[in-house]
Write a sequence for this structure.
């Protein structure tokens, strides 16, 4: 046997079964039958309840004589008390399963609620990695945004309302039984949300590619997602109802989800969870704001990987020094944001000097920080935030 | 909403959890514990029984005081009666789970044996697509070749000994619970088998890429696998113990498996199952022999897709007509075979004129033919075989 060292670290991969494609939403009834489910709890938000996609699912359930209950009180950044409420409602209504239809907030709340049907204590007890013991009831996810990938991920992000930060709960038990991914659902998403969720997906792909938990399989998904978002998002910004662009955006989001669910994430997410929880800010927006400044911070620790991203975007780096290489990548993201009209910066979030400590504290403790190319100190994170607000 | 038609067909994707990497074989004991298993049946073949990999697993089981039974009588092309035997042995030994360690034959036999523990009748009743009703006992797969991908696929190929053909059994129920993929196992595989199984993986990638069941996700896996095999296999032929080459070959095989398990296959496999069953020929060898002549037959029905493969291998096709494009791809495969010293042809299998009818009959009825770019008639398959023997 040769004495070469192994090229790849040991890596794990898990993904739920999924269906992808226009009109795949019509398969919900088929899976209700396949899984022999009798009484699902449909978890959604009040906006979606009146939209055609939820109605489509109700109609399918009625068509096969399936009784269902509805929980529609999920808020934009789902809270710990909502999770407890969902869990109680599922149990009280004698539901045997869950259908989550919505964006990342709805799906995360539904998954966490499902977990609390089967596990004791409070959702706060399950923060971190691999804390969940018992599986949730069967859950079918129907995502209606192109960013969170909660429908294919081992993550649920829930706001701890006492301490005001978003807890990352990471466990294989959070993989849904089936995800039904219909790009048609994006046709009713406001352009602003299309852009914010796509930038969330872009961040997933970037962070998983440079993650310490990356593998050749997650790399493949991440690079493909990055290329597809850079190519498609400017087109979507101009023509947000074009179904072909939306198909590619949904596909990129799915690929980014497969990458980060298995490679985990990094400093952008660690700070976004902390900051977003403290200020109740939309997750995709937080991520998009932080992405380029975190690259600036991380670059020296993962230059080779960041350069690979630039190269896969078509940049030729051969004759450039590290400073210029970094600049090219950061500028490519800023150009993309300009093209699509995303111009919010950290300054717009009005973070006060006095809030930096608590935001930095939760960020350093976030499980996503563990796979960042470098583990920053509390002081470094404070400086990072102070420099950018 | 725009009136554009959708770009992608509705596609399904399912994969087992897997671990990939050098020394990942040591995780077997962890999964025995995670799944709370108490008495696995280790399914393998007599050659592997004495090899270090099976011994490694026995040692792990003994280290955690787990009792196990052994079935080591799987033959190279597993037979229907072996499957029935495995099933009986599992039940009689009161095993609650299966560990399959070996190549595709061992893993297919173990999976099919598991299915027969939980389903009535004979394994022959489950030939075709989605016939299995009840799940098998928990199964952990440890592949020791870089071709079959039985450890990540929804397929099991079992020889019908009465009618002398290989039945394709295709069902989500055939996905293992966990696959532990350790490239180190390839260090003990004879070079001839390394080459035959790699060519099997190459065929999986080719057939899934042009399959009518392909999707953007399976395409990504297939193209990456093809590039990796073309790049790595000639190196392996020269230096078959180099662990870095073996890592890439195992990775390519895994990727090809993810592709074909979800996109299905085509005419190469349909004929290989029929011919290989009739003459008891190794599957990888059959595939490798047939790959270029099936491209010759299929090309006009999937020229665009075959050209994409050529382009991803670096060929510039712009100024070429269809005949030359086809020629380039076929020659690239023949060159690869030459480089690695694979020079068996269909003529070497000594198929008699009188055997063509029965081989063509089973090939036309094979489930893999359903996703070939074109559905050939019985007469066309007969002519195809006659022309090549």
């Amino acid at each position: 046997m040769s004495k070469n060292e192994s090229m790849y670290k040991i890596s794990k991969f898990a993904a739920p079964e999924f269906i992808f494609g226009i009109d795949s939403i019509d398969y919900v009834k088929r899976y209700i039958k396949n899984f022999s489910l009798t009484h699902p709890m449909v978890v959604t938000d009040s906006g979606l309840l009146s939209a055609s996609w939820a109605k489509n699912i109700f109609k399918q359930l009625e068509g096969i004589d399936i009784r269902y209950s509805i929980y529609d009180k999920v808020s934009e950044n789902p809270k710990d008390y909502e999770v407890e409420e969902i869990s109680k409602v599922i149990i009280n209504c004698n539901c045997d399963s869950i259908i989550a239809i919505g964006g990342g907030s709805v799906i995360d709340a539904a998954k966490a609620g499902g977990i609390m049907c089967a596990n004791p204590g409070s959702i706060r007890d399950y923060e971190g990695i691999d804390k969940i013991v018992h599986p949730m009831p069967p859950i079918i996810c129907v995502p209606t945004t192109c960013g969170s990938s909660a429908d294919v991920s081992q993550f649920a992000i829930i706001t701890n309302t006492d301490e005001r930060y978003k807890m990352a709960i990471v466990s294989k038990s959070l993989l849904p039984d089936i995800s039904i991914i219909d790009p048609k659902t994006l046709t009713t998403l406001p352009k602003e949300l299309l852009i914010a969720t796509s930038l969330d997906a872009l961040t997933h792909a970037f962070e998983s590619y440079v993650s310490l938990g990356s593998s050749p399989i997650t790399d493949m998904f991440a690079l493909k997602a990055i290329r597809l978002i850079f190519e498609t998002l400017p087109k979507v910004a101009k023509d947000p109802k074009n179904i072909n662009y939306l198909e590619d955006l949904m596909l990129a989001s799915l690929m980014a989800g497969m990458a980060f669910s298995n490679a985990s994430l990094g400093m952008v997410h660690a700070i976004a969870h902390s900051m977003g929880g403290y200020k109740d800010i939309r997750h995709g927006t937080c991520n998009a704001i932080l992405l380029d400044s975190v690259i600036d911070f991380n670059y020296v620790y993962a230059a080779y990987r960041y350069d690979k991203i630039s190269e896969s975007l078509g940049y030729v780096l051969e004759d450039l020094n590290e400073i210029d290489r970094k600049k090219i990548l950061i500028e490519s993201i800023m150009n993309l944001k300009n093209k699509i009209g995303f111009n919010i910066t950290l300054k717009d979030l009005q973070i006060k000097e006095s809030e930096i400590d608590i935001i930095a504290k939760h960020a350093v403790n976030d499980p996503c920080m563990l796979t960042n190319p470098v583990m920053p100190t509390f002081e470094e994170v404070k400086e990072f935030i102070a420099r950018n607000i």
Notes: Chain B has two domains: 17-186, 190-388. The longest helix of chain B spans residues 216-238. The two ends of chain B are 55 Å apart (CA to CA). Chain B touches chain A at residues 1-2, 4, 6-15, 17-24, 27, 172, 183, 187, 215-217, 220-221, 224, 239, 241-244, 247-248, 251, 254-255 (CB under 8 Å).
